[in-house]
Amino acid sequence: MKFDSIIIGGGLTGLTCALTLAKAGQRTALITAGQSTLHFHSGSVDLLGYDEQGQTVLHPLDAIRALSASHPYHKVDDVAARAEEAARLLADAGLLMDGTTDRNHFRLSPMGVSKPAWLTLNGLVRSAEEDSLPWRTVTFANIRGFLDIPTEFLVDNIRRKGTDVEVKSFTTPELEQARRSPSEMRATNVGKVLADETALRRMVEAIDGLEADGEVILLPAVLGVADARAESSLRQLVDRPIRFVVTMPPSMPGVRLQTCLRQAYQQLGGMYCASDAVTGGCFEAGRLRYVTTENMPDERFYADHFVLATGSFQSRGLMSNYRGVFEPVFGLDVDAADDRGAWTAEYVYDDQPYMRFGVRTDERLLVSRNGVRVDNLYASGSVLSGHNALKLADGSGVDMLTALQAAHNILKK
C-alpha cells in the first residue's frame, strides 16, 4: 500500500498530525497499537503551566521564550500561530473549548487541586485564579457507588479555596442496575448507561430531587463519549447551574477528545489502522521506504513521509534495559544519560531526569539513526527529548504544536 504520509501512533500527537495532513489533501494512514494515553486526559490542553524554576505561568507565550534551548517548542516556527491552529483544529472536530494563549486559567483536578491550563472543554470546572473558585457555595452531587472521584480530597481542597461545599448523592434505576457489578461503576461505563434519553431524564429528576443549596451543582464528568450533547441537555434540563469535574482515569473528556479527532480524520478519508503496531521498516539511502506491522507482516506500507508519534515510556514509545534507553521500533538515536544512576532523582517529587529523555531530532524534527539523519522520518510529541511534561505542564501543547509543525514541514517539501 502506498500513501503520501504514514503516522505511527494514535494519541493526541498522531491524530493532530494525521488530521492536518488529511485536510491538506494528502493520502494518509494512521497506525495505532490500541488505546492511547488520551484515556488518562484531563479534558484540558496545556501550553505551559510552570516555568523551569517551578513557578506558575500566567502568560505562556511570554514564558515559552525563556525555556531552555533543548525544549521542543524551539523547533516550532511560530508558537502563537500553531497554538491558534491547534485551537481551530479542536473546534472543527466538535470539541468546544474555553481559553486563550494570552493568559492561562486553572482547571480543577479530581483531587480538587487547581492546575494551569490553556484550553479546557466547555462545562468543566475552571477559574481565573489559582486559589479560588467563582462561587461561594457549591453542591457536589456524586453518583451513588461511583468511586472514580476521591470525594473527601475534592471537597477538602475546594473548601481550602474559600468555597463552602455540601455533598449529596443520587442514583437512578439504570445506575442501580450497573452497581451490581463494581467494575461497571467506572466513568466510561457509567457514560454508556446514561447515553439513553430515558436514563438521562431520570438522572435529571434525581438531581432536581436533591434540593441542592449550592450556587452551582458539580457532577462527575461521565457524559458524552463522542460529543457534548448529553452534557448540554443535562445543563438545560436541570433547574440549577451545572459544571463537571473530571474523574480519575478512565477519563470521559479524554475519550471524547480521541473519538472526535478520530472521527474527523476518518471523515476526510484517512485510513485508521487500529490495534496494530509497526514492527520495523526498510531504510535506503537515508530514507525510510516502508514499514511493516504486527497484524499484517507480509504487507508493506510505503509512504513519502513518516511521522513517529508513539509517545514516551508510558506508551512504550521509549523503553529501557540494563544497557540504556532506546526507541524500540526503528532503533533511532535518543538523548539520554549513559549512567543509569543519572536517570532518576532520589526524591520522588523532584525533577526526574528520565522524563527529559527522548528521540533526538534536528531543527526540522527529522530523526537520525546511528548519527545519520533520516530525511523523511519526523518525530513529534512526547517521544521527543528536551522537556519534562509533568513538571512543566506542557505535554498536550507539545503534542499538538510539534505535530502541526511536522505536518507543515512535510507539506512544504
UniProtKB/TrEMBL annotation:
Name under which the protein is recorded: Anaerobic glycerol-3-phosphate dehydrogenase subunit B
Native species: Prevotella illustrans
Superkingdom field: Bacteria
Enzyme class, first EC level, given as a word: oxidoreductase
Alphabetical list of InterPro entries matching this protein: FAD-dep_OxRdtase_2_FAD-bd (IPR003953), FAD/NAD-bd_sf (IPR036188), G3P_DH_GlpB_su (IPR009158)
GO MF annotation terms: glycerol-3-phosphate dehydrogenase (quinone) activity
Pfam families: FAD_binding_2 (PF00890)
Listed EC numbers: 1.1.5.3
Annotated keywords: Flavoprotein, FMN, Oxidoreductase
Keyword field contains DNA-binding: no
FAD-dependent oxidoreductase 2 FAD-binding domain segment(s): 4-390
